[in-house]
Amino acid sequence: MPPRVYIRGRLESGVDLGLESTHIIFTKQRRGLDSAHSSLPLPLLLSLTDCWVPRRGQLPGTQRRNTSPHAMAGKKVLIVYAHQEPKSFNGSLKRVAVEELSRQGCAVTVSDLYAMDFEPRATRKDIAGAVSNPEVFSYGVEAYEACKKRCLTSDILEEQKKVQEADLVIFQFPLYWFSVPAIMKGWMDRVLCQGFAFDFPGIYDAGFLKGKLALLSLTTGGTAEMYTRTGASGDFRYFLWPLQHGALHFCGFQVLAPQISFAPEYASEEERKAMVASWAQRLKTIWQEKPIQCTPPWYFGH
Ligand SMILES: Cc1cc2nc3c(=O)[nH]c(=O)nc-3n(C[C@H](O)[C@H](O)[C@H](O)COP(=O)(O)OP(=O)(O)OC[C@H]3O[C@@H](n4cnc5c(N)ncnc54)[C@H](O)[C@@H]3O)c2cc1C
């Protein structure tokens, strides 16, 4: 089934396609769409979509969750944030997320990885005390053993505690080489270890972090048009596969649709403000969203 979409923005003229979800195509990208793609068939337009922004409070056809203020108050959110500069666009997206979620009564914790000088390298130092095989060091084996014995180094344990307590983990980052910045990859390597986030056969829907939500909020250098199936960079869902499926879903997270702010450096001030506002707007109803079907068809089509 094709993605269900309500496109707003310049195409907003009110044409409700009778489909589900909302995607904001910002002015710069709309210009491209209007000139280059407006006559394209709907499926091709739809291929430009998938960073959904709920429009009327609830995505039609999704199960409604209890989103009364009482239900949201008490929700715990961890934002894992990777940008060096607080005044950056990523910094703004992080800031409005903290403001909006706190306003809802959620308890929000931020792991500001650069500010924390978070250690990204997975090394022998992560195991406090003796390793089980001093002859040949295997990080995966030793981290697993140390996790079981609660002998991981304290910065890992602190991050695991934050994850354990969170109902929703938001990853806020600029796209680096079709992936997360190294410091965030290091967070994944070290924090989501076997024994904590998964263990066999406890993977994917049986992963240890099941029942939790995860959301990637990222910015790109490339435009939305570049990140289409026929664009120079290919569909953005291709680079989401290893992150959303290979890491987050593998550990049991249910994955919410990504928030992708395309090319803020090349957008106008007005367009950038609109992107920040749309993220804040989406967060107002984030607890009503249904996770994506995190399986190959979502990423690569049928
Ligand atoms: C090592 C590396 C690898 C990369 N790999 C890729 C890749 O594979 N694919 C790709 O597409 N891109 C890639 N990029 C580009 C990168 O993703 C972008 O540079 C990044 O996403 C831009 O986000 P930013 O937060 O750094 O933007 P910024 O430069 O911080 O922000 C853009 C502008 O927004 C302004 N701004 C900040 N807050 C607000 C606000 N509230 N309202 C209005 N304006 C605001 C800022 O002042 C600035 O003028 C790569 C970059 C690097 C360094």
UniProtKB/TrEMBL annotation:
GO terms for molecular function: chloride ion binding; dihydronicotinamide riboside quinone reductase activity; electron transfer activity; FAD binding; melatonin binding; NAD(P)H dehydrogenase (quinone) activity; oxidoreductase activity, acting on other nitrogenous compounds as donors; protein homodimerization activity. Its main location: cytoplasm. GO terms for cellular component: cytosol; nucleoplasm. Transmembrane segments: none annotated. Gene3D superfamilies: 3.40.50.360. SUPFAM superfamilies: Flavoproteins. It catalyses: 1-(beta-D-ribofuranosyl)-1,4-dihydronicotinamide + a quinone + H(+) = beta-nicotinamide D-riboside + a quinol. The keyword Secreted does not apply. The enzyme apparently serves as a quinone reductase in connection with conjugation reactions of hydroquinones involved in detoxification pathways as well as in biosynthetic processes such as the vitamin K-dependent gamma-carboxylation of glutamate residues in prothrombin synthesis. Homodimer. Belongs to the NAD(P)H dehydrogenase (quinone) family. This is Ribosyldihydronicotinamide dehydrogenase [quinone]. It comes from Oryctolagus cuniculus. The gene is NQO2.
